[in-house]
Amino acid sequence: MLIGELAALSGLSHDTLRFYERQGLLHALRTAKGYRRYAPEAAARLTLIRLAQGLGFSLAEIREVLGQMDALQAGGLDAVQVQALLQGKLAQIDARLDELRSLRAQLADQLARACPLRLQVEQG
């Protein structure tokens, strides 16, 4: 599919798609006239990229995971190697979730202490 089709399908701009390509996150073949042609899987790849970004992953982290997945598909890594790499990433996500739960608990505690209704009751 051409860049316009992928942009319409993904809801991303042409500039964003070109940026992702420059960053090594997205791959396109070039036609004889120089047009970018993306594989049908590009839309799913973009969904993964956007989800990971939304969860706070850097483009470098996303590129690393996508590179591992690409290497597996190209036969450069075996399934056991990719599984180990992805398990490491899952461990990082679990650690981040633990940190977020702790932060949430601290914020909820601060909110409970600063609750305007609680302050009115204590002053009255």
From TrEMBL:
Domain of life from the UniProt record: Bacteria
Domain HTH merR-type: 1-68
Keywords: DNA-binding, Repressor, Transcription, Transcription regulation
SUPFAM superfamilies membership: Putative DNA-binding domain (SSF46955)
PROSITE patterns reported in the protein's UniProt record: HTH_MERR_1, HTH_MERR_2
Transmembrane stretches, start-end: none
PANTHER family attached to this UniProt entry: MERR-FAMILY TRANSCRIPTIONAL REGULATOR, REDOX-CYCLING DRUG-SENSING TRANSCRIPTIONAL ACTIVATOR SOXR
Protein name per UniProt: MerR family transcriptional regulator
Organism annotation: Roseateles flavus
